[in-house]
Specification:
Layout lengths: L14 H10 L1 E5 L4 E3 L8 E6 L2 E6 L5 E7 L4 E2 L15 E4 L3 E6 L1 H10 L1 H27 L2 H16 L3 E2 L3 H8 L3 H13 L3 E4 L2 E4 L2 H8 L4
Antiparallel strand pairs: 1-8, 2-7, 3-6, 3-8, 4-5, 4-7, 9-11, 10-11
Length: 221
């Protein structure tokens, strides 16, 4: 698949606009753990994921992380190019969770096309609205949902994402996703283990009773 296959409004662009985007887009690969946006890099541009997995997160003044959303195959990250929208200042960091291939469209080139094309402008606004909806949903979870429910939901979602019950993830990494200290994660996981819902190993968590985890998510326990 080529660049144009990953861009939903491609067929609505003029030949000149297509050439501008395709000519400016840079294809690159990012190894697991590589920061592709943030960390003093300024306005990176639009990120178009070909294959792999990226994680967008924010960092508190105390250095604590919390995951906003994941980017999978065919996903597009517009917050990495938020500088092209003068009224939006939203600082996020984007890191490769798996080896990832992606295209980066420079913000200036994309802004030029967006100013010319109503279709691209509408598409971009929809992307931005969808991402902010995810962020607002996350804030509601952090503020109003108990940690056991959030952790159970995270483990189930991670299991579905990885396609298995054995998760190779550390307690610290889970804390970074959920915005909680490692010690809090460890205590709750040990409680889950005592209740027969998980089995803890070094660098790995095995889900042994998804039904009970689902009950916690739904407030049945």
């Amino acid at each position: 698949m080529g660049f144009e296959d990953y861009f939903p409004v491609w067929d609505k662009l003029t030949p000149a606009q297509k050439n501008r985007l395709k000519g400016s887009a840079v294809k690159r690969t990012a190894k697991k753990g590589t920061v592709v946006h943030g960390g003093g890099r300024g306005c990176t541009g639009l990120l178009v994921v070909g294959h792999g997995q990226l994680r967008a997160y924010i960092i508190s003044g105390e250095g604590r992380e919390v995951t906003l959303y994941r980017l999978l195959d065919l996903d597009i990250c517009v917050l990495s190019a938020s500088c092209m929208m003068r009224s939006i200042q939203f600082e996020v960091t984007v890191e490769a969770e798996k080896d990832t291939s992606l295209w980066i469209i420079p913000a200036e080139a994309y802004r030029e096309v967006m100013e010319e094309s109503a279709e691209v402008a509408n598409f971009t606004n929809e992307l931005m609205a969808a991402r902010f909806s995810e962020v607002m949903w996350l804030m509601e979870q952090v503020m109003w949902k108990s940690f056991d429910k959030r952790l159970a939901g995270f483990l189930l979602k991670e299991s579905a994402l990885e396609g298995g019950d054995a998760l190779r993830i550390t307690h610290e990494a889970i804390g970074n996703h959920l915005g909680n200290p490692r010690e809090v994660v460890t205590r709750m996981l040990r409680y889950f283990q005592g209740e027969g819902m998980v089995k803890l190993r070094r660098g790995m968590i095995e889900l042994t009773d998804k039904g009970k985890l689902q009950d916690i998510c739904q407030g049945k326990q």
